[in-house]
Amino acid sequence: MQTPIPVTVLTGFLGAGKTTLLKHMLKAEHGLKIAVIENEFSEAGIDSQLLGDEPVQVMTLANGCVCCTIHTDLTKALYLLLERLDAGDIAFDRLVIECTGLADPAPVAQTFFIEEELRDRYILDGIITLVDAAHADVHLTQAIAQAQVGFADRLLLSKTDLVTAEAVETLQERLARINGRAAIRIVEQGRINLAELLDVRGFNLNPDLGASITRSLRPVLKPATPDRISTLVLRSSTALDIDRLSEFMNELLENHGKQLLRYKGVLNIAGDDRRLVFQGVLKLYGFDWDSEWKADEARESVMVFIGDELPEDEIRAGFAALT
């Protein structure tokens, strides 16, 4: 069986520096064979030679990376890359998808859950969102910019040299309110350690899920005028009944599935010594049994929801009723 190709989705509002970051990734001597898909709405193409009338154009660069410019839907481009890979025409072991500045990351992420063949051949590794520190206040008035932050597994701040240290700190606090589980990093002129971008494992169901959720969440104060998108954390030290939990989740997804951008959790289920881990995007989610709780470990259930105008009090009350 072929090893799935890790996919990184790169998003961010117009002018945040996605193309600059991609150019750095493609020029760096990292020894990786990275394929990049960008579309015609990008602020500036990676290579003018790629532009033309063909729906999909593919070119191999000098360092072995592969560039793909698309004038069609993403699914077709993904299949085309696989065809050329299987035929030996190109070689790559990672894929980066650059979204347009006004794009919603949700359909891109869902592509790798819905299409069975794509699900087998690719594995979504993480969503990386660039945030322009100099213009974030303006950008974040747009719902789509907040959604890009909410979907992220990692947030990269660009243009921090154009603002004060206090402004950067204030922005970091705001981003943490919107998305409490994404690590925040600084990127300078597109330069950043690739280890910050690759092997993020944002969509993995893994043994460290509970610990990573707890580590990444930061205590934040609610602002007087909250953003539309925010992080909701539910915790319980009481073992949960799996049937009642299932009813709670089904009702939540039925009523608010379109508002749930990303969600993850590690759960302590009554009558079972194993963790139950789950994650989802909108109404698509998966779960699995994981390793057993350690004897000296506190069995705490933690659920993290990043949503668009979620009725927090209602959801908290529903979860409290489980315990």
UniProtKB/TrEMBL annotation:
PANTHER family: COBW DOMAIN-CONTAINING PROTEIN, COBW-RELATED. One of its GO terms (molecular function) is hydrolase activity. It catalyses: GTP + H2O = GDP + phosphate + H(+). This is GTPase. Its EC number is 3.6.5.-. Residues 229-323 form the CobW C-terminal domain. Keywords: Chaperone, Hydrolase, Nucleotide-binding. It comes from Pseudomonas shirazensis.
